[in-house]
Amino acid sequence: xxxxxxxxxxxxxxxxxxxxxxxxxxxxxxxxxxxxxxxxxxxxxxxxxxxxxxxxxxxxxxxxxxxxxxxxxxxxxxxxxxxxxxxxxxxxxxxxxxxxxxxxxxxxxxxxxxxxxxxxxxxxxxxxxxxxxxxxxxxxxxxxxxxxxxxxxxxxxxxxxxxxxxxxxxxxxxxxxxxxxxxxxxxxxxxxxxxxxxxxxxxxxxxxxxxxxxxxxxxxxxxxxxxxxxxxxxxxxxxxxxxxxxxxxxxxxxxxxxxxxxxxxxxxxxxxxxxxxxxxxxxxxxxxxxxxxxxxxxxxxxxxxxxxxxxxxxxxxxxxxxxxxxxxxxx
Length: 331
Known about the structure:
- This protein is α+β, with helices and mostly antiparallel strands.
- It contains seven helices and 15 strands.
- Strands 1-2-5-6-8-4 form a six-stranded antiparallel sheet, with helices on one face.
- A hairpin with a 2-residue loop joins β11 (222-228) and β12.
- The protein is globular and about 60 Å long.
């Protein structure tokens, strides 16, 4: 099965949807350029003076905020490439380019876009650029935190920006609904259990393919996705099952819950016919028309290649309803 061309996407390999390091390119690139990112590791480090979680029920007045933020419409993209970026490695700054309001809301509330309803049509079509800076003393506190906690704080500040500049008002609810449960298939799991990555080690270099057209193995704690010619390849190394659950949820546009009972960190490669684009984004038009008769659906590939399967069941589904939103005020 030869991969002629790929698409690149970089995202955090933790369970946070979209999180805050996001980059995508829909331009065709060589297969040697592979999407990857380190897996965020849980930490018990002190929280210092910043808030602990973007999912907390803090009042709007308690949310941390960027010191300054510039918001403007993204200029029209010319040519075949669409490039989306959000986040960055420096916790003292936040940059976003060519993002929709719905992308920003999903990141700020640490949800996926399919969990968000309501709002005018422009939240899916209008694109925005954001450049924001954190106040120096808060930036100093953020530097002390592990990466995962830095991301949570940035999400809270992004939520504050949406309330201030987009006049965002939302209602959060948890309802009983249909979810997909990831369970072990008949015959048992086929994932390879490996030791967890060293939490003190930095991200490794991008992996190089072992053979032309074949997916490489990412470094420990990393995951990547390639997409091209109607084939998607998802590969992870030394990551928990929660990572796979997150990717399945984005690809299927539906809540997925882990009922495997698998507690370790695993190495696996999954190849399937994509239903969604990178990170849950829509498939590019050329990918929608591509087909590969040799490639299994995600449901079939999951069972045949990883020894896991998805079953429909009932469970809690958290949602956000947009009650009010406006195009952002001038800088």
